[in-house]
Amino acid sequence: MAKKKVVYQVVDRESCIDTTINPWSEAANLKRAEEAKKRVLKLFECKPADLVIRRVTVEVVG
Amino acid sequence: MSENRGVKKHPLRKLLLVDDDELIRSLMGLYLTGLGNFETWEADNGQAALNLARRVLPDMIIADLTMPVMDGVTMTEEIRKDPNETLRKVPIIIVTGAGDDFKNAAYNAGANIVLEKPLSRKIFVSAMDRLLPK
Fold first, then answer.
1. Which candidate, B123, B102, B121, places its Cα nearest to that of B28?
2. A33 in contact with B at a CB cutoff of 8 Å?
3. Closest chain A residue to B35, measured at CA
C-alpha cells in the first residue's frame, strides 16, 4: 500500500543549471535540500532566487 | 536539453571528479552526465584520484585545488610525471575558489585550465569541448 511522505526538492526555476537534469529531484529532508542549494550556488554561477526549495508530498510504495 | 548546454557529441568518455566535498562531486557528476555521454568516477583527495586514475585512465580530470591528504597541485604534478604516457597527457581542469597564487601553482604544475568557482557554465563547457580528446 502506498504511503504519503513529505520531501523537499531544490528546483532550478530559471534554468540556472539545467532543468532537464534536475539533480535535486530525489527525496530529501529540508536540511539536505538547503545544503544542496548552498553547494549549487558555490559551484555554479547563479542567483539564489533562481533556486527554490519546494515542499512536496510523494507516494512511497511498500 | 537545449542545444547550447551540452558538450559536442562524442563517444563515451570517462571523467574523474576530485573534490573532498561529497555533495559537490555528486552535483558535478549529475550535471556532467546530463550534458553528454560521460561515465564519472569520483575521488575525495589527490592521492585517491591518482590511484584511481592509474587504474581507470580517464579522458579528463576535473579537480578541486584544496583537499586533504594530497591537494590538486601535487596531484597534477604527480600525474604529469607518471610513467604511463596516456595518463601523463590526460587533460586536467582545476576548479577552485582559491586565490591567484594557488591558480598559478596549478598552471605551473601542468593543469590545462584553471577555472574559478562559482563556474560559468558557458566557460566550463567550452573548456571541456576544447580539451576532450576528439
1. B121
2. no
3. A21
Nearby residues of A19 by Cβ (< 8 Å), 6 or more positions away = A12
Q: Which of A15, A18, A41 sits opposite B118 (nearest CB)?
A: A41
Which residues does residue A9 pair with via DSSP β-bridges, in sequence order? A54
H helix runs in A3-52, sequence order: 30-43
Q: pLDDT digits over B2-47, tens only? A: 434 566 677 889 999 999 998 889 888 888 887 888 999 999 999 9
For residue A62, with 0-12 CB atoms within 10 Å meaning exposed, 13-18 middle and 19 or more buried, which class applies?
Answer: exposed
CA distance B36 to B49: 22
Q: Report ipTM for this prediction.
A: 0.78
DSSP A48: G
Nearest Cα residue to B40 out of A25, A18, A23, A38: A23
Distance (Å, whole) CA B44 – CA B47: 9
Alpha-carbon distances of A46 from A30, A35, B3, B22, rounded to whole Å:
21, 15, 20, 20
Contacts of B33 in chain A (CB under 8 A): 21
The pLDDT value recorded for residue B1 is 37
